[in-house]
């Protein structure tokens, strides 16, 4: 019975996780995500109990405005809680909120902070945005080597935009820079990042 209860608690997040694998744009951009009032109530109850995955899911729903009205204040509330607990998707989305000034004051350094935490765990969205940050020098010193490293890692996970930026960036780099970036990408190993506990 305990295992069944656990599975039922995990179901909302697991379903959303599958949707994330399909792609953020397709899931929350063009297609409506149907959320019933019962779904919202159950997920909110779990989030209120401190479940980071439920908090991330609610934050994503409010961020994209799919199934519920778009509400950046609520998105930030839930994503911040989940990100602080170490959820990499929440960290990536929270970084985007700071980069775009959505529900918060625009702060590129804060954006990079959350991108770094999510990227270190292997989140492709965070890796892509972190790569762009190093490419443009927003929130961090411009560094083509690190930009290529993170864009390359995101590209390997199927982020099409990352492939284009990575290949374009490669043409601006020296052979030694490119070799160093590729070496860093090969050596990368995802690790758990919890802002409350530091590196793990």
| Radius of gyration, whole Å | 17 Å
- The backbone outline, from C-alpha atoms, is elongated
The overall number of domains is 2
Q: What is the CA–CA distance across the termini?
A: 33 Å
Mean pLDDT, rounded to whole units? 85
> What structural class should be given to the helix and strand makeup?
mainly alpha
The percent range for strand residues is: under 5%
The number of helices is 11
Order of helices and strands: HHHHHHHHHHHEE
Low-confidence stretches: 1-31
Residue share in helices? over 70%
* Major beta-sheet overview: 2 strands, antiparallel
Give the strand order, joined by hyphens, for the main sheet.
1-2
Q: Give the number of DSSP strands.
A: 2
Structure explained in plain terms:
By secondary structure, this protein is mainly α. It has 2 domains: 1-85, no CATH class; 108-200, no CATH class. Helices cover 71% and strands 2% of the residues. It contains 11 helices and 2 strands. It has helices spanning 2-22, 24-30, 37-48, 52-64, 72-84, 88-100, 108-120, 124-136, 144-156, 160-170, 175-187, and strands at 193-194, 198-199. Strands 1-2 form a two-stranded antiparallel ribbon. Helix 6 (88-100) runs parallel beside helix 8 (124-136). The longest helix is centred in the N-terminal third of the chain and has 21 residues, at 2-22.
């Amino acid at each position: 019975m305990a295992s069944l209860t656990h599975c039922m608690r995990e179901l909302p997040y697991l379903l959303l996780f599958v949707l994330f694998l399909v792609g953020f744009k397709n899931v929350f951009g063009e297609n409506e995500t149907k959320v019933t009032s019962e779904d919202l109530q159950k997920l909110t109850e779990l989030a209120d109990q401190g479940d980071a995955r439920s908090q991330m899911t609610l934050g994503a729903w409010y961020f994209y405005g799919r199934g519920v009205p778009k509400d950046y204040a609520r998105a930030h509330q839930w994503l911040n809680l989940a990100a602080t607990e170490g959820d990499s998707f929440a960290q990536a989305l929270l970084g985007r909120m700071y980069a775009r000034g959505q529900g918060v004051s625009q702060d590129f350094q804060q954006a990079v902070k959350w991108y770094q935490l999510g990227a270190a765990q292997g989140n492709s969205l965070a890796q892509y945005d972190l790569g762009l940050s190093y490419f443009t020098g927003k929130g961090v010193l411009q560094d083509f080597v690190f930009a290529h490293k993170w864009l390359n890692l995101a590209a390997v996970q199927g982020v099409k935009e990352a492939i284009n930026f990575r290949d374009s960036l490669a043409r601006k780099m020296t052979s030694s820079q490119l070799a160093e970036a590729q070496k860093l990408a090969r050596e990368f190993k995802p690790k758990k990042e919890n802002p409350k506990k530091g590196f793990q």
